[in-house]
Amino acid sequence: MVTLEPQFSPTDGAAEPYTVLLPDGTLRDGATPSMSDDEVVEALRLMLLTRTFDDKAFRMQRQGRFGTFSQVRGQEAAVTGSAAALDPRRDWVVPQYRELPALLRQGLPLKQFILYFTGNPAGGGVPEGVNCLPLNIALAAQVPHAVGLGWGLRQQGSDAVVITYFGDGASSEGDVHEALNLAGIVKAPVVFFLSNNGWAISTPRSKQSAARTLASRAIGYGMPGVVVDGNDLLAVHEVTAQAVRRARAGEGPTLIEAITYRTGPHNTADDPTRYVNDEELKHWQQLDPIDRVRRYLTARGRWNEEIEAEVDAQNKAIVDEAFAEAAAHPAVHADQLFAHLYHQFPSRVSRQRAEFAAHS
Amino acid sequence: MVTLEPQFSPTDGAAEPYTVLLPDGTLRDGATPSMSDDEVVEALRLMLLTRTFDDKAFRMQRQGRFGTFSQVRGQEAAVTGSAAALDPRRDWVVPQYRELPALLRQGLPLKQFILYFTGNPAGGGVPEGVNCLPLNIALAAQVPHAVGLGWGLRQQGSDAVVITYFGDGASSEGDVHEALNLAGIVKAPVVFFLSNNGWAISTPRSKQSAARTLASRAIGYGMPGVVVDGNDLLAVHEVTAQAVRRARAGEGPTLIEAITYRTGPHNTADDPTRYVNDEELKHWQQLDPIDRVRRYLTARGRWNEEIEAEVDAQNKAIVDEAFAEAAAHPAVHADQLFAHLYHQFPSRVSRQRAEFAAHS
Amino acid sequence: MPVMTMVEAIRDALFLEMERDERVMVIGQDVGRLGGVFRATDGLQEKFGEDRVVDMPLAEAVIAGSALGLAVSGMRPVAEIQFLGFGHQAFHQIGPHIARMRYRSQGRFAAPLTIRAPFGGLVRTPEHHCDAIEAQFVQCPGLKIVMPATAYDAKGLLLASIRDDDPVLFCEPLRGYRLIKDEVPAGDYTVELGKARVAREGDDVTIIAWSAMVKTAEQAADLLAEQGVSAHVLDLRCLVPLDVEAIVEAVERTGRVVVAHEAPLTAGFGAEVIATINDEAFYALEAPIRRVTAPDTPYPLAGVEDFYVPNAERIAAAALDVVRTVA
Amino acid sequence: MPVMTMVEAIRDALFLEMERDERVMVIGQDVGRLGGVFRATDGLQEKFGEDRVVDMPLAEAVIAGSALGLAVSGMRPVAEIQFLGFGHQAFHQIGPHIARMRYRSQGRFAAPLTIRAPFGGLVRTPEHHCDAIEAQFVQCPGLKIVMPATAYDAKGLLLASIRDDDPVLFCEPLRGYRLIKDEVPAGDYTVELGKARVAREGDDVTIIAWSAMVKTAEQAADLLAEQGVSAHVLDLRCLVPLDVEAIVEAVERTGRVVVAHEAPLTAGFGAEVIATINDEAFYALEAPIRRVTAPDTPYPLAGVEDFYVPNAERIAAAALDVVRTVA
Ligand SMILES: Cc1ncc(C[n+]2csc(CCOP(=O)(O)OP(=O)(O)O)c2C)c(N)n1
Ligand SMILES: Cc1ncc(C[n+]2csc(CCOP(=O)(O)OP(=O)(O)O)c2C)c(N)n1
Ligand SMILES: [Mg+2]
Ligand SMILES: [Mg+2]
After folding, report:
1. CA distances in angstroms from C29 to B2, B14, B265, C176, D82, listed in the order given
2. pLDDT of residue A302
3. pLDDT tens-digit readout, B305-331
4. d(Cα A181, Cα D177) in Å, to the nearest integer?
5. Which residue stretches of A118-230 are H helix?
6. In this predicted model, what pLDDT tens digit does every residue of B169-224 receive, in sequence order?
7. pLDDT bucket at C244, cuts 50 / 70 / 90
8. Confidence of residue C21 (pLDDT cuts 50, 70, 90)
9. Residue C242 with chain D: CB contacts under 8 Å
10. Mutation test residue for ligand 2: of B173, B192, B201, B209, the one with most atoms within 8 Å of CB
């Protein structure tokens, strides 16, 4: 009676995350970096830029001059390394809300991001030529969009690839299941990038699923699944680049799970001291993804304190200027409730629009 | 650059279905049946009963005397073998709509099933003491219910197990993902029984998912997954009995995928000649799950033509009587639109109820 | 002019538009090989191939959600939800995303897609298949909701919907697929979204309806005519955009109004019709408006559905009451 | 009597009921360790343990759907949907299943569960978090919908909801969590579901509202008082059961009515209120009813939300118009 043991067992989902760049900034034995030094420098600048932004925006929020937002702190390598595997002119990013480096690399002006989080509807706009969908707050809803987008682009003869980001929390939503399954069927050119940062607000990964890894779900959709050290810029880049190549070649989607950690609060309204374990947080702070790249580039003679200072000054200037641009943006007005809602407005809505215009 | 191959690959989801009873009615080498001969006889009678019912109900439907319904034809072993692993007094069945043998074994009067499909709301009723939820037409919605039910029973100190049935089609719904994931987390005492009958109406399994097996999804929820020959009563019973034992012992849920085939139309409104391949159908008809058990029992001296004739006569009588009981049920009336909708009716609805009573 | 059933008219529109515009895709459960459970897409896959007519997995949210992605990519998907009752499974995609893509992206992206879904009862379908939940989708700003009542309109409105740059929820009356038959021109034509249709002219009372209930309203008008009452039947055709002018005109003409729908009374679209009349034509009313609807109960099993769905007698009786009301 | 904020009153009710009835469970995203993103469940897990206060995975459909299973098993779950806007993700569980379990099973099973969900704007939350989609759930026969406007009611209605043998969607006004404060008795009490509350007595015009909009209506009443207009404010408290008698009484008292809600105009619950008055109190009306609502657009980003949500001035202006209308 004990002959027919289940063919699939929970432990089949276990895997060690891939690493290329070790925490001390050296390469894993036998590893070759998939990024040139110039590319790594570029990536580090971007990671630093978003950290500069995160710091400033957080302070501004505390002063009541910026809205509720989520920092990318601690996850810079995962977002930047994956985005660096894309060709911004043809490939697309379908974000959740914590992927500023990817959006910037695609060409989204930082000002847009700022406008969005100051609550100006104009901030939802994506300039023509920038291949990003708007931020997505309703968790996981973006994942089906990414599948349709990739599928449709291919249908029109393009070899574009779509990457979509979503969290360990979002991964529990039905939409993710339905989207992964469809992508497997139509071989959509999509990279599903699951940023497992250990938390969905206060809910730890351990309470989000009993799965050993979330990437193991790929098996159940007939696609490859990869677990990667999300604090390792080079490993993230390499596995994403492979997934992009597969997708571009018509071989279909890949699910990548990046193991990383949210070292800040969930967002500016959150108080993580209520639930985050200090030890764990310290452990991950020591694995800071930016430090690791700094060490790597320093060892390779491509980074030093002067460069750091210079980049920091540049980044501060970029961020300040973006905030200044956003501040100089025309003030919000009531008509923004209506603008762009329809291509052709129902007359009732047009009438409301006129009434609102008259009263404000 | 090709060093970091995905840890999980689509082929990780491949598995041969377990078998115990071979198509020729003999046992697989080394296999011991998990059911006594008496139990197998009982199961065969039930399988034959539902086939008798399917035939008669189909004819009645064609004569306009019965509603649209889905036969269990071809899948009798999967449903009966799994249900036979339950203790009807404490365990629960949460059905889709194609599981008549399981409902009967739990004690649902056949008359109720008939009433339901003649469109009498009374048919939705489940007599006190019968541990089944109502049929579920909205695909996959029942799967979360099963998880809550199992979880809640355990919370109250019961060692009851819940089995829920759903199809290969239903498995694509987000609800199944969310439910499997929650069950893994709370270790709900639930057996997820996926009847993969090759079709969701006209959509073949191959277009439903690129996964090699659907049971492989268990990995991604941290639970065991089993693929079993769904036309093999004994194999289905054995793997289900194991899953029930695990669940009862507090070890959590199991996902079982039974590979079977719908040898009839999707339902009485369907015309499968538009999409079913003749060869494939014939192949599966030869694997008829009832024939297999007949051969097995015949070889063991527990079945012969007299018994068959006797059982057939009994089954016909049971079915005829159930149809007669259903026909004798009080005629439908307008108040059934309202009955049981609320424990405490809003006064507006009570008023409507009175108006309807006055007008009909 | 050829007479077509509504399902033929819908199929005709799909053929025409797929032929005319290669960005059009048809996706949904069983729409390909089978040609749809009601044959609305019969023959499309054979003609236009598996790339453009796609049998989807059984998952409404991703049918809707991927249609949005397809639309953003430049395609014009026509997605079928096999029954509107299962539109709930896709609600979070339809309301907050499909309807808002243009708005959220400040016009950079749009959602020129159509979701087709049959609904409504009296054809003995199983639970949920008949649920008339159209009103629940009305409060999804950005979405248009189209409800044809004739084969002619089904074709013309569907062509207009697919070509519309805004997303459309196109609800088809299940029992009308074969029962509704009328003259349908062979080639290309569109019926403008947001213009109601006077199905019958009359002076004593206006019956407002949409979808299959328009036919029932016309039958009620026949019954009323026997009693010497002249009923005006207004077919809304679209819930969004709502043809407020046509409603006002009809109310002003008759002063007395009945609204009929298949959905339950409370919070049905009939409520909005009454509220609109209150807003725009209050003083033209000579009597309270009457709603003839299903009760506030779920769509029941087939055996009692005849009690549930408003019929011509109930509409006529309500109309008579309204006509006879003396303020 | 102690003064409590609304969120304190809700927490108090949950404590009391978990203490009194061990079948009560609290499940939802972040309800355990964190105590809820608004602290509505703060301290519950510490007191009642991880088995009864459960942090759920991020999946609204299974939060609702498993709550139904829990209820069938004999528990009394209180499930939190973190924001009502994400109730769409669970709509297919709430309408067709939770609301209908008793009906579908002919009374064998029931769904004595409560779904708590905050909604509403003006507190600078991100997209979707503020969506006032309550009207979309009204057409789910079998479901009750509760909308407290005061801390006192929040506690008493929540206790009544949890004890009710029918399922309840309990919508909490986000901006009221800390802003709404009033006297709340310490111990056990319930407020009957389906009874509206006269928030303020007046004779010239009735303002009908629910949830946070009641406060705004009262502010409007203050403004009106300055102009010598005496406004009657009716807090519906529940959309289902709807207190039709209280509405009729108020309409008969003043003859003039304004309905205010945070949701868009079209197909908002205001439409049903107007339709109900048309049905039941038509002849008492001395002027058309006015709706003061959000426009037919999505809830916008925070920077423009002050334009979107009706304020006391808009309500007062509409009320003045109504009062001054001469037929
Ligand atoms: C559908 C939905 N449900 C709930 C929320 C509320 N919410 C916002 S962020 C969040 C946690 C998200 O966790 P995860 O997906 O892991 O992303 P992370 O914030 O960690 O990057 C929740 C529950 C939401 N935005 N959308
Ligand atoms: C949510 C939902 N979507 C669509 C349908 C329409 N429908 C009824 S049965 C069916 C196919 C079901 O396939 P499967 O789950 O494999 O079960 P089977 O009929 O093969 O037993 C479909 C699409 C439905 N009932 N529910
Ligand atoms: Mg996370
Ligand atoms: Mg199937």
Report:
1. 39, 26, 16, 21, 32
2. 98
3. 999 999 999 999 999 999 999 999 999
4. 40
5. 142-155, 174-186, 205-208
6. 999 999 999 999 999 999 999 999 999 999 999 999 999 999 999 999 999 999 99
7. very high
8. very high
9. 266
10. B201
The count of residues in chain A is: 360
**Can A237 be counted among the known catalytic residues?**
no
Q: Which value, in Å, is the radius of gyration of the alpha carbons in chain A?
A: 21
Tell me, rounded to whole angstroms, the distance of Cα D326 from its chain centroid. 34
Residue C206 near residue C250, CB atoms below 8 Å: yes
Q: Quick one: tokens of A202? A: 């206060």
Q: How many CA atoms lie within 13 A of B81 on its CB side?
A: 35
Q: Please say whether the beta carbons of D296 and D265 come within 8 A.
A: yes
pLDDT class of A360 with cuts at 50, 70, 90: confident
Residue carrying the six token digits 């920091």 = A312
D259, β-bridge pairs: D208, D291
Cα dist from A170 to A141, A196, A213, D130, D150, whole Å: 9, 10, 15, 20, 34
Q: Which amino acid does the sequence have at C185?
A: P
Sorting pLDDT into bands at 50, 70 and 90, what band is A2? very low
The 3 state secondary structure assigned to chain B is: CCCCCCCECHHHHCCCCECCECCCCCECCCCCCCCCHHHHHHHHHHHHHHHHHHHHHHHHHHCCCCCCCCCCCCCHHHHHHHHCCCCCCCCEEECCCCCHHHHHHHCCCHHHHHHHHCCCHHHHCCCCCCCECCCCCCCCCHHHHHHHHHHHHHHCCCCCCEEEEEECCHHHCHHHHHHHHHHHHHCCCEEEEEEECCEECCEEHHHHCCCCCCHHHHHHHCCCEEEEECCCHHHHHHHHHHHHHHHHCCCCCEEEEEECCCCCCCCCCCCHHHCCCHHHHHHHHHCCHHHHHHHHHHHCCCCCHHHHHHHHHHHHHHHHHHHHHHHHCCCCCHHHHCCCCCCCCCHHHHHHHHHHHHHC
Whether residue B275 lies in the annotated active site: yes
Predicted ipTM of the assembly: 0.98
Mean pLDDT over A121-148 rounds to: 98
Cβ-based neighbours of B33, under 8 Å, separated by 6 or more: B20, B21, B27, B40, B234, B238
Report residue B2's pLDDT band, with 50, 70 and 90 as the boundaries: very low
Q: Is A275 a catalytic residue?
A: yes
**Three-state secondary structure call for residue D241:** coil
- CA pair distance C10, C206, nearest whole angstrom: 29
Residues of A in contact with C104 (CB under 8 A): 124, 134
Phi, psi (rounded to 5 degrees) for A281: -60, -45
CB-count burial class (<10 Å; 0-12, 13-18, 19+) for A221: buried
- The predicted structure's pLDDT at residue B3: 64
Of the pLDDT bands very low, low, confident and very high (cuts 50, 70, 90), residue A4 is confident
pLDDT at D262: 98
pLDDT of D1 reads 86
| Structural tokens at position A314 | 């540049």
Contact present, A209 and B198 (Cβ < 8 Å): no
Q: Which atom of ligand 2 is nearest to the CA of B70?
A: 19
To the nearest 5 percent, what fractions of chain C are helix, strand and coil? 40, 20, 40
> Which residue in the list B51, B105, B237, B266 is annotated as catalytic?
B266
pLDDT over threshold 90, residue A3? no
Q: Kindly state the tokens that stand for A224.
A: 């490859």
Residue ranges for chain D with pLDDT beneath 50:
none
- How far is residue B289 CA from its own chain's centroid? 15
Ligand 1, atom 11: nearest CA belongs to which residue? A200
Question: Among partner residues D56, D60, D295, which is closest to A352 by beta-carbon distance?
Answer: D295
Per-residue model confidence (pLDDT) at position B1 = 44
Measure the CA–CA gap between A168 and C303, rounded to whole angstroms. 47
